[in-house]
Structures are given as C-alpha cells and as structure tokens.
Amino acid sequence: MADDRRPVGPGEITRAARASFAGAPDERQRFLLQRLVECLHGYASDVGLTRAEWEAAVAFLTETGQTCSERRQEFILLSDTLGLSMLVDALDHPSPTGATESTVLGPFHVAGAPLRPMGSSTVEQDGSGEPAWVTGTVRGTDGRPVAGALLDVWQNAANRLYAVQDAAQPPGNLRGRFRTGTDGTFAFWSVRPVDYPIPDDGPVGRLLAATGRHPWRPAHLHVMVSAPGYRPVATHFFDRASPYLDSDAVFGVKPSLVADFVPHAPAEPGAPPGWEGTWYSLEKDVVLAPLGDEVG
Ligand code: BEZ
Ligand code: FE
Questions:
Q1: Residue ranges of domains in the chain
Q2: Is 258 in the pocket of ligand 1 (CB under 6 A)?
Q3: Prediction pTM value
Q4: What are 183-234's pLDDT values in tens digits?
Q5: CB neighbour list of residue 208: distance below 8 Å, 6 or more residues apart
Q6: Which of 8, 41, 219, 293 could anchor a disulfide with 193, C-beta 3.0 to 4.6 Å?
Q7: For domain 75-288, which CATH number applies: 1.10.10.10, 2.60.130.10, 3.30.70.790, 1.10.730.10?
C-alpha cells in the first residue's frame, strides 16, 4: 500500500502547529499561543535542538513541577533566575515618572500578615537580628502624603530564613501590615536583613551550580504598598552595603531601591530598650502613581 504521508519539513510543522490554534475564540489567547509556537520552534531550529537535549529539558521541567508544594514554588524560581519575572514586571508595570519602582515579589510573601500599630515591631522572636528602625512617607507623584496607605512588609532573619521557610520562627516573625496616618508617614522596628541564597536544593539550584552562577540575593526588606486611588507597588529596600547588589541571582536590583542602614551606637537616643549593640535606622519614602496614570 502506498504511503501517502508526505515528508514534513520544519517550516510546515511550525505552520501546522500555529494553524491548529487559529480557531481559538479568545483573540488574545490565540495570539499568545500562536506566537509561543513560532518562538519555541524558532528557538529549537536556531540552536539545532537535539532529541537528547529536548528530553533532558522535559526531565528538568518535570522535576521543577514535582518540587513545587504549598511552601515551595520552583517554577517561579526558574522564571526569576532566567530574568523572566523581572522582564514581565518591566513590561507590565512601566513606572510612571517619579513613582517608586517595582521589583520581584518572590515566593515568600504570605497574605494576611499581622496588622500592627504604627511604631511597633515586626520582631516576634529574640535573636532575629540587629534592630533596625524603618521610617518614611508614602506620597503620591504630586508630592502629597497618602493617608491610609497599607504597607505589607516581610524579610528574613539573621539565620537568612523567612518565617515561611523556618518552622522555628513564629509565623508572623518579621512580617507585618501597617497603615499610614494622615501625614502619610510610616515607622516600625524590624531587623537589618541579611544576604541569602534563594532555595538552591532543587533543580533550579542545580542549574545555577552547573552554569557557574551563585544563588545569592542582596539583603533587602520587601515592601508592598497599596492605597485607594493609587497603583499598588511591590518593591524592596536593598541594603547598600551588600556585596551582591551587582549580581542578584534574580536580577531584581534597581539603583533607586538601594538605601542606607545607618549605624547607631547603643547610647544614641531612640535605641531599642535593652539592646546593647549597634542598631540601625533606614529612611526611605514610597511614591505611588495615581490610578489612571498607567504607562504603555
Ligand atoms: C525574595 O526576595 O524573597 C525572592 C525573590 C525571588 C526568588 C527567591 C526569593
Ligand atoms: Fe526576599
């Protein structure tokens, strides 16, 4: 019996796969999938992908999925370390002039942090680190203070771990939500964050090691700020003293987000009661863009 299957070349395969989505009723979905086919096929052709390499990639992605759990998101980590998270953030949130720039959310944000009074502390466990007094004002791009803005903050402890990673920390440790008063200011006690490696005991960590990359992030405080009538922003306050500012494993550093933890002697006014070592202060304002001021 004659075989009527014609040899199919790369171009025809790409055209057929692209055309298979032509009937997708959602226009945006159709566009996204057809361009995905074109770009994936273009990549495979470009690099001359071998079957063995493709199988290795499928095994890697399978393990990435299997590493995910309620407490671990290896796919986000993969996106972060490929720079894709920061690219999507830049494309989706171009900062209007003057507004605080956003950066990666990361996998350690947990909704529902304790609501705390302004001026109180996020520290729920002794030994969490060196005290840091964090202050600033939330303003609009017009310079006016934003009353009632909600700050959601989270960071790691001296052992490098976030509470969500560490069963030995109370779940609310170094996490908190604060609401600004009428003058838009915020102030709370925390600890000076420390540099830390992103979780590197899974497939993403192996990828970094195999390619000569380190897993470190420069010390930072996560701050997410929202207020009625303004675009929310998820950002970091980075410690200028970190040696990893120029090689963040997830490409999250922007110069405007770097700040100084100013050291203070124990005897200086404002020192935390009972603390006998150096403590720090950090002052950083947050500027929000009004809704309707979207760029792009
Ligand atoms: C973080 O800053 O918490 C983070 C961001 C990306 C990957 C891992 C951690
Ligand atoms: Fe972080």
A1: 10-49, 75-288
A2: no
A3: 0.91
A4: 999 999 999 999 999 999 999 999 999 999 999 999 999 999 999 999 999 9
A5: 81, 200, 214, 215, 249
A6: 219
A7: 2.60.130.10
